[in-house]
Amino acid sequence: MKYITFIFFFVSQLAVAQKTIKNEPLTSTYSIVARDPETGNLGVAVQSHWFSVGTNVSWAEAGVGAVATQSLTNPAFGQRGLELMKSGLTAEQTLEYLLENDEGRAYRQVAIIDKNGNVAAHTGDLCIAEAGHIEGSNFSVQANLMEKNTVWKAMSKAYTNADGPLAERLLESLKAAQNEGGDIRGKQSAAILVVRAETTGNLWEDRLVDLRIEDHEDPIKEMGRLLKLHRAYEHMNKGDLAIEASDPEKALKEYGAAEELFPDHLEMKFWQAVSLANIGDMEKALPLFNTIFEKDEKWREVIPRLVPNEILVVSDEDLKKIKKQ
User: Fold this and answer.
1) Three-class DSSP category at 75
2) For 301, how many CA atoms within 13 A lie in the half-sphere containing its CB?
3) Alpha helices in the chain (DSSP H)
4) What is the value of pTM for the model shown?
5) What is the pLDDT of residues 81-105, one digit of tens each?
6) What CA–CA distance (Å, rounded) separates 293 from 21?
7) How far is CA 123 from the centre of its chain?
8) Is 80 helix (H, G, I), strand (E, B) or coil?
9) Pairing of strands 189-195, 132-136
10) Strand-pair category, 58-61 with 65-72
């Protein structure tokens, strides 16, 4: 009985919002929702031949769950699904309430995972073939308007066999879908969203990965590049925090880890060089500065700006050496 008032509110809202399916986007696509059983982190990933697919399809909230709403998409399923789970409903109960009050349920494809790893998915009878889904342990994969009816099976297998952080495993599932033929119309956009198992109270801390490819000839490949860049900048951010804490050795370690991922990235090289100079290793710092300045002279102008705030702490003699590179 504790949820009756809440449910009546959402039923009334859904009844108003879902009287028609005329203006809803035809976001035919493939997607995955998942929970990492080790960390409890929650995620959703999607690809489609549709502009900015992440805008309508992928939803997730730390400590609550994740939703993928697609086919003839009802975007209301995203936010309302999260709110229903936040009230205490399971993924299955949430899906039941959403579909019960949706006149367009036969056109819908939706998958939901809650914070405990319970999954629920629906592929309406009027979703465009090939369409289907597989519910697994702590994940669900779903697809519609695919070239083959083996796409979601390939996604399930790839995700189950993948290693590493949740975002990388979600990406492996998307890659498998594309390798199996993917969306029969082609490729255009993709999104990956990963949130914490429990909320910190700060949205910017709760979202661990939030990447979107809005329009690209090869969104899965580009997503892979951006995810790798995201990991590199995680190290860069830790390096910045180390500088703030006056820990140049920690900063050097983090900037160096970033540069290993992108060895030609001038930003990563520059801050590694700064950290080397800060610990007094000018023998390694000077050649790096030289390489950077040769490729882009503007970085030389940054050097004197780092001295007053003690981001760069070197002797006057070493500062002159750096400027001469």
Assistant:
1) coil
2) 3
3) 4-17, 76-86, 91-100, 151-161, 166-179, 203-206, 219-244, 248-261, 266-278, 282-295, 298-302, 316-324
4) 0.90
5) 999 999 999 999 999 999 998 999 9
6) 57
7) 24
8) helix
9) unpaired
10) antiparallel
pLDDT band at 278 (very low <50, low <70, confident <90, very high): very high
Other C-beta atoms lying within 10 Å of the C-beta of residue 112:
32
Per-residue pLDDT of 142-159, as tens digits, reads 999 999 999 999 999 999
Residue 287: count of CB within 10 angstroms of its CB: 13
**Using CA atoms, how far apart are residues 192 and 220, in angstroms rounded to an integer?**
10
257-276 average pLDDT score? 96
Tokens at 190, concatenated: 């993709």
Distances (CA, A) of 98 to 65, 80, 105, 172: 15, 8, 9, 29
What's the count of helices (H) and strands (E) in the chain, helices before strands?
A: 12, 11
For the residues 166-178, what does the mean pLDDT come to? 98
